Amino acid sequence: MAIELKRIMSLNESSPRCPSCGNAGKPVKVATLHSLLLPEKRDHIVNQGYYFCSSAECDTVYFTDNREHSFVKSELTVRVGVKENTSPRPVCYCFNHTVEEINEEITRTGKSSVIDDIKEHMKKEGCSCETKNPQGSCCLKTVENYVQEALVRYRSKPTR
Ligand SMILES: [Zn+2]
């Protein structure tokens, strides 16, 4: 209990909350913003730490430490897969994987090869998540979550 409380408090201290939805932000490098914001929006980047909001329902993608500046979905050159509920929902920006493709494979075969595929490509070519993925970090965790979700859905379907 005490440990849990401490954990939550330290999370609060270290992660500013999204000014739109209140979700704890994830730090993101300014390089990511420079590469993914629309060219005319890049001048609006201020000299502050930026955070990514991963809430599906929230329009805000990036916001600053002091929560005074933010960028919304329409100011990016790519679709933010974790914030979309219509296709295509990209999740791996380096090797072009979408939520739809993961679901389709699982519906068809009962399993997913996407993680292996990404790892294989990473070994050969490396990845550029910092400049291609709006989250600015490796996509594997996000992809894994979608695979898990799709597998649970697939297994809970009644078999004929
Ligand atoms: Zn938000």
Structure description:
It is a single chain. With 160 residues, the chain is an alpha+beta fold. The chain is built from six helices and six strands. The chain folds into two domains: 2-75, N-terminal domain of TfIIb (Single Sheet); 81-156, Orthogonal Bundle (Arc Repressor Mutant, subunit A). It has helices at 2-14, 30-36, 99-109, 114-125, 129-132, 140-156, and strands at 26-28, 50-52, 60-64, 70-72, 90-92, 97-98. The protein has a four-stranded antiparallel beta sheet with strand order 1-2-3-4. The chain has a two-stranded antiparallel ribbon with strand order 5-6. β2 and β3 (60-64) form a beta hairpin. α3 (99-109) packs parallel to α6 (140-156). It is globular, with a radius of gyration of 17 Å. The mean pLDDT is 92. The structure holds zinc ion. Zinc ion binds next to loops.
Short structural description:
This protein has helices at residues 2-14, 30-36, 99-109, 114-125, 129-132, 140-156; strands at residues 26-28, 50-52, 60-64, 70-72, 90-92, 97-98. It is an alpha+beta fold and 160 residues long.
